[in-house]
Every structure is written in structure tokens, then in C-alpha cells.
Amino acid sequence: LLLAWSAYLCGSLCRCAGWELRVEEPLFMQHLGRPLNEVDVAIERLVAECVVVGKELKVRGLLSDDELEEMSTAVIIGLPAVALFRSLLAEGSYFGTAGPPIFDDPHTTDPKLREFAAVLGGARVRLRTLRLHQNEAAALTEWLLGRERLPEREAKERGGEISAVVSALTGVALDVSRLEAFKRHSRQMFVELLSRCDSE
Q: How far is CA 119 from CA 35, 84, 156, in A?
């Protein structure tokens, strides 16, 4: 701070003498008071949840080492979609506990995050109306991972509403997978998932 003040004083004196002195603002001061990148924070939260969900799916046999190593669609899009699904479900659901909110910050100013929040808000309303049974939640999870579709009876009775939820979750996950922030943070996700899976 003393150095910054000295630079400011020196610059002022030079200007009084008619000289122009350009003093670069110190790096630490350039970042003071500036908000963190909202997208990075949200993606970090999503990736952390993907690791938790991925571990559970691995135990259930719904995610394989091959898919993780190949970075298949089931992982790149399916895993974030399942993490988002979990975050929208009520506590005590198919996953045992609800995941943390991911794109729910009401104070966000980033237009992409606000768009994600709006789409997921619609999916949350549908899920509350649907009140999924255990077998439906299990089938929807596999659907998001690119596996089985809904059993015929569920598809006939509530397929339209459930399809709308799947479309919303998959759409957001696909958009997320294109973000540079996700590409950066997802590398660590693969490392953690493979190391956790190998150690168990």
C-alpha cells in the first residue's frame, strides 16, 4: 500500500511540473474488489457434484471405467445432466439426498447462467408435479446416461412430461459441455473419478 501511495504521489507531482508519468496499477490492486467469475464458480459447483454422482453411478454399474477413459457422451453430457437432475429432486429421493443447487443463484448477472436457471426452474416445477416413483427416477437416470428409455407403462401414462424434463436437463448439460470453463474444470473431474474408482 505504501508503494502504491508513493507511486500516486510521484505521479501527481510530475503532472504539476507538466510531465506525464504512466504508473501501472499493481496486479494485486487490479483484482481487489472485483467479483469472481460467476460462470467458473457455477461450473466448479457442477463438476464437484458430478464427481459425487459419478461415484454413485459407478457403484451401481451405470458408469464404467471405459466410458470415463474414453470421455464418452454418457460422461460429457449424461453425467452433468444426472447431477442437475439430482439437484432438482427433493431430499430423500431416489438418490438418498438432494444435491446442492447449481445454477440457482438469484443474484447472478451472467445471461447464460440466468438462461440455465430459467430452464431448470421449469424442469423443477414439472418434477414437483410428477412426484416420480423410484422406478421412474431410475429409468430417467439411465435415459439421461443414454441407456434405456422409460418402461412402456410409464411412457404411456406420463411420458410427455418426463420427456420434457429429460430434454431440459440434456439441453442445459449440452450447453454446459461447450463452455470453456467446463472444458477446463472437467479434466480434474475425470482424474478424480478414475482415481476414486480405482482405489475402491
A: 25, 11, 24
Give the cell for residue 167. 430434454
The gap between the terminal CA atoms of the chain, to the nearest Å, is: 50
Alpha carbon of 194 to those of 80, 100, 183: distances in Å?
16, 23, 17
pLDDT tens digits, the chain, 200 residues: what are they? 444 445 554 555 555 544 444 444 444 444 444 455 889 999 999 999 999 999 999 998 998 888 888 888 888 999 999 999 988 886 545 566 666 778 888 788 899 999 999 999 999 888 888 888 888 888 889 989 988 766 666 566 777 888 899 999 999 999 999 999 999 888 888 888 887 544 44
User: Rg (Cα) of the chain, in Å, rounded?
Assistant: 23
Instruction: Give the closest residue to 106 by CA, choosing from 169, 42, 46.
Output: 42
- Given a contact cutoff of 8 angstroms between Cβ atoms, the answer to whether 108 and 38 are in contact is yes
Report how far Cα 97 is from the mean position of its chain's Cα atoms.
Answer: 18
Do the beta carbons of residue 31 and residue 65 sit within 8 Å?
no
Instruction: Choose among 78, 86, 85, 40: nearest CA to 193.
Output: 78
pTM of the entire predicted model = 0.74
